[in-house]
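Entry for coenzyme A complex. Fields follow.
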Amino acid sequence: MSHKVIESPCGPIVHGLEDVLVKTTEISDIDGERGVLWYRGYRIEDIAERATYEEVVYLLLYGRLPTRAELRQLADEMAEERELPGEAVELIRIMSRAHPMFVLPAVVNVLGSLDPEANRTDEQSDIRKAIRIASKLPTAIAYHLRMSRGLDIVRPRKDLGHSANLVYMMLGREPAPLETRGMDLYLVLHADHEIPASTFTGLVAASTLTDMYSAIAAALAALKGPLHGGANEAALRQHREIGSPERVPQYVEDALRTGRRIMGVGHRVYKAYDPRAKIYKAFTRQYVEKYGDPEGIYGVAEALERYILGHEYYASRRLYPNIDFWSGIFWHYLGIPEQYFTPIFAASRVVGWAAHIVEYRRNNRIFRPRACYVGPHDLKYVPIEERG
Ligand SMILES: CC(C)(COP(=O)(O)OP(=O)(O)OC[C@H]1O[C@@H](n2cnc3c(N)ncnc32)[C@H](O)[C@@H]1OP(=O)(O)O)[C@@H](O)C(=O)NCCC(=O)NCCS
């Protein structure tokens, strides 16, 4: 493990808390050496093949797979919760020119301000609020997408599943089964990933016993950063910039010469092929086989992957494509603008954030780390008149 340890007068400091344990968890586990991910003990491959996003929501929040009746009940509850209050719609309209990642925390705060049980912190109430937020975020994202383009909003439909409804509200048409599958698979694969910066931020906020809405708004703020949620946009731009498979070797060699990173490659935890990337690559291949690859982006990505996997520089550093390498291709062909990639990531991860918050609050202790002060002490205060 590569730690960025800083020596200080108070002792070594693990920069970025890399590999520092902050809680125990039963929600998700990553074996970065072998490239394995589990949700509540189930391998991501099994979940991705069979479960819908609603099933994953149940699994992560309640700790076990639902029965058919329990899943139906949760799906109905989520469908009922999709509509946004007028205040939130108005806010989205006012902020329709802003990047949607500025808008989502504001929407979540508005939702919190209108929820009579916002300030309760017991487990059942926290789970109910998590379900409300997870149900309403897609509507907020789709409304913003349409308002920002001067289009009429498309109200949610209760007869569609969570993912089909999200695509429907964004595009204004019912999605084909493979389009629904692409959305659902993406949401399933992003629902939790242990303790990245956004989950940690949500936990820090929640540990003060602030409300679930405020904690989720904090997590959203952390996800907005390009080091976290934004890599999928950058990877798509890169694939499009490369333009054709023949240009891959030149592009990679130029990147190496100038010290530029290949986007969508490498991972802080995975030192093997990201299992989510494997699954999403297979889906994307299936998608382009059916709908074509009109801009040749999938072809470029495949050639880039092949080149990197066979290159000594990347092999020796155990750098493999991650999920972001593959996920933008489908979004692009579906017609989703790049700035909505991170919001859709958030629409999925919100349930992981909430599950970790619920788990942590069972044995809550406010986060309060220390800093090692390295400045002077006991300076003589000089009155402003004497400072010149
Ligand atoms: C994800 C990421 C931040 C992980 O970083 P990390 O675990 O801290 O890895 P390090 O920064 O310590 O990198 C280890 C080595 O691999 C190199 N490296 C890491 N990612 C690289 C990439 N995408 N392209 C080229 N070289 C890369 C580093 O330069 C470093 O080389 P060195 O040992 O010669 O100095 C990093 O791989 C990255 O920036 N990837 C591109 C952005 C991306 O896809 N992010 C999405 C992550 S889900």
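NOTE: The chain has two domains: 31-225+337-361, 231-334.
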